[in-house]
Design a protein that fits this description.
This protein is α/β, with parallel strands linked by helices. The protein has one domain: Glycosidases (TIM Barrel), CATH 3.20.20.80. The chain is about 40% helix and about 15% strand. Strands 2-3-4-5-6-9-11-12 form an 8-stranded parallel beta barrel, surrounded by 5 helices. The mean pLDDT is about 95. The structure holds 1-deoxynojirimycin. 1-deoxynojirimycin binds next to loops.
Length: about 450
Amino acid sequence: MSETQRLDFPKNFLWGTATAGHQIEGHNDKSDWWRFEQEGKVKDGTKTGRNIDYWNRYEEDHALMSDLGYQVFRLGVEWAKIEPEDGKFDMAAVERYRKILQSLRDRKIQICLTIYHWVLPLWFAQSGGWLREDAVDRFVRFAEVVVKELGEFPDLWVTLNEPSVPAAAGYLAGEFPPEHKNFREYGLVMNRQMHAHARTYKLIHDNVSKAPGGGPTMAGVAYAFQWIEAYGSAGLPGLYEKMMARIFSFGSYRGWNNAAATGYAPFPFGREIIPGLKDSYDFCGVNYYMRNSLKFDASKKDTGFVDMEAIPPGIEKTQMGWQIYPPGFNKILMYVWEKFKKPIYITENGIADDVDAQRPRYLLEHIAQVNRAINAGADIRGYMQWSFIDNFEWKEGFSKKFGLIECRHDDPELKRKPRPSARMYSEIIKENAITRDIVKKYAPSAADGVFGDKWKA
Ligand code: NOJ
């Protein structure tokens, strides 16, 4: 019997890692998240402060990426640094970003640049944030500076990161700033971000005629996809779970993506045609981490009587409490492919694991699902692992460690130490494949999930 020895990826498949400005840079003191942290709203009480100081140590980090053979880096710019006061742009901050991007360019590391990754300037947040009448104009004014000043660098542009998350967590669940719980506002913030994306997409194309490598300008959204299913309880609760899975998957990703595909924003996202939204994706950015199995629970009033965190028997969870379900990744990739028929980049996928016990297997089993989707016909062009380095995990603070590289924000020297997974990832990149040897060396228990039937979708 011949056994598959390797899962090969297409030639020129792009491998790299992802992060976001506020999560690694430090010194973002004119922002709404900074204030949120000072107010003690982060669960473990940590504050970003100088963070792991990527702002000053980027050379060291880029050198590490080169050594490890990582080919693309997804990073962000911070609005609050670039426009710390309404209409006043800090050109020194822009200059710093230019240096950072140039340093990546010098090392031949491709650049995926996120313009908005959840954090707002304080002046904007305090005057209403996304609820301001002129929110979209203000956002686009900032984006214009980024595009005009830094437009020569990005190989890939991400206009917005996971727009559903700040909308739902900030305006519906009351978990993120500005801690509102208002369904109408949630719909409005989604609507505003659709406008913001469509206009920023146009702005990019109006100003940047080609990518640095000479290819077409590539812009899109990095969208948060969970695979959402009913838990499968018996009887009436089971029917209820099915109905809620439909509603939640609509709110979470189907609604936005229907709008992006057709140009029409359905209820509750405005019931209008958003000018420029249709065909505003050159690629689809997919962020995938987990499955949610919605389980009926009469005590969970806030989440519509479903337990979002229920874990079915036999399924493992991460330190975030998220269930590990690799086939969901494949299902999402095929959903995105069928819906848009556009190139796909995985803009995030990863796991919080401070001791690197689950990560090697998680990565292997998820990357294997990407391989399956490619073999099924999806045009997937790259994979960016979240995250390059340990960073500030929002409301969870620094205690959740997503990095391939370990770094303690409270270490005076902020030493960077690659975890075994970082090396494993280098080997995958070098081979442009997952091989039996890599699996054997780093996570033998993943063999069935990678090469066998365990996670056949
Ligand atoms: C998605 C977000 O884009 C990123 O900021 C976050 O750290 C990761 N998921 C992990 O939760």
